[in-house]
Write a structure and sequence with these properties.
With 168 residues, the protein is of the alpha+beta class. It has one helix and ten strands, in the order ββββββββββα. The longest helix has 26 residues.
């Protein structure tokens, strides 16, 4: 009976029979609602969090995506980030692509969604950012320098081979 509209009304039969009430209706869902996810990281109450954290949560059964809200306060009136609809997250993690404010408290929550409905919101995760700079602010990551170094060695090796091959 998934996706079926049901109609109902009521009347009193004791001590006297009344007229029928207005008719009301409801539709059963087309499938199960996603289960409620749980926030994992940053952990509730965690401090000194980097300015571009990856927000992670548990998988939601029957979810095809996730709505995500990040705000400076837990009344959600002024979100820093709100992803839903076409912008919903498709995985169980989201890497921020902008810096949060230093030494600031944040709240975040997530819910599973599918084509039909959504789960309840997770409990709110709360964390405080640190006062240190992100990796991007403090210079290039080490892996970039490793790639530059290896590329230089490779180019030098190719040049040596070209020069040696012309001698013969």
């Amino acid at each position: 009976w998934l996706g079926t509209r049901f109609y109902w009304s009521v009347r009193v039969v004791e001590p006297y029979v009344s007229q029928w009430s207005d008719t009301w209706s409801f539709v059963t869902p087309l499938g199960p609602a996603p289960s409620r996810p749980e926030v994992l990281s940053p952990q509730a109450g965690e401090g000194n969090v980097i300015l571009r954290p990856a927000l992670q949560w548990t998988s939601s059964i029957a979810a095809t995506g996730y709505d995500l809200i990040l705000a400076k306060n837990c009344d959600w009136s002024n979100p820093v980030l709100s992803l839903s609809g076409d912008d919903a997250v498709s995985d169980t993690a989201y890497q921020l692509n902008f810096d949060l404010e230093k030494d600031t408290d944040y709240c975040w929550k997530v819910r599973g969604i599918n084509e039909i409905t959504h789960s309840l919101w997770s409990d709110s995760g709360t964390f405080t950012t640190g006062i240190t700079a992100t990796v991007e602010e403090s210079g290039l990551p080490v892996w970039v320098w490793v790639i530059v170094g290896l590329s230089s060695v490779l180019m030098l090796s190719i040049l040596v081979l070209i020069v040696q091959s012309r001698r013969y």
